[in-house]
Amino acid sequence: MSDPFFTLHAEMPREGPGDRESLDWAMGVANLPRDAAILDAGCGPGADIEGLLAHAPRGHVTAVDLHPGFIAQVKARWGDDPRVTAEVADMRAPEGPFDLVWSAGALYFLGITQALEHFRTRLAPGGVVAFSELVWLSEVRPRAAVAALSQEYLPMGNIATLEARIAAADYDLCGLRVLTDAAWEAYYTPLDARIARLRPGADAALAEVLDAAEAEAALWRAHRDAFGYALAVVRPR
């Protein structure tokens, strides 16, 4: 029996908020060489690979994710391009060295400080890590948002908390910005359409997943001033 979560996400272009404009900003801060070696850690279906290669056209992207379906999507698009290697693997597995570790919303699985400490051993001299992390943006935290987000993102902090976790890993912060509404809608608008296609005839298990996804999107749209993703570019000291 297929997992209803992956039934929903099987045709999604990306697995979380993000867009080309925010990636371009991060790459401008990173100032990569044109032949950079890049790790896309927790790549999902590979939404950011095109943008990464635009900034390193003579480089190479190693894209890893634990879900075989996502890696199959990456290979379907990039399988003939020698600049891309896609692997079903833990994001900690590739050895490097890498000029850039890019991770869109996935480092929280490891913990930011712990992830940065690990990736220090995978970076080439002068290499950087660029990642996004969910944070509180306001001291006004709606009860519904606290209840929903505290279940998955423990312990979720604000930007100062994120900066402290970066410093605890002995990294310098090169740049930080909050993802725009457009970056969130780049994820939620296709998700809305996918839910609408799957809703007719959905069994109970799938309907539960669809309901949860709708509630997640509605939560952000109602309380977008309270929380968001911070995109950070950091370098080991």
UniProtKB/TrEMBL annotation:
Swiss-Prot/TrEMBL keywords: Methyltransferase, Transferase, Ubiquinone
GO molecular function, one term: methyltransferase activity
Gene Ontology biological process: methylation
Pfam family, one: Methyltransf_25
Domain spans labelled Methyltransferase: 38-127
Xref: SUPFAM superfamilies: S-adenosyl-L-methionine-dependent methyltransferases
Superkingdom of the organism of origin: Bacteria
Name of the protein this chain belongs to: Ubiquinone/menaquinone biosynthesis methyltransferase
Species per Swiss-Prot/TrEMBL record: Sinisalibacter lacisalsi
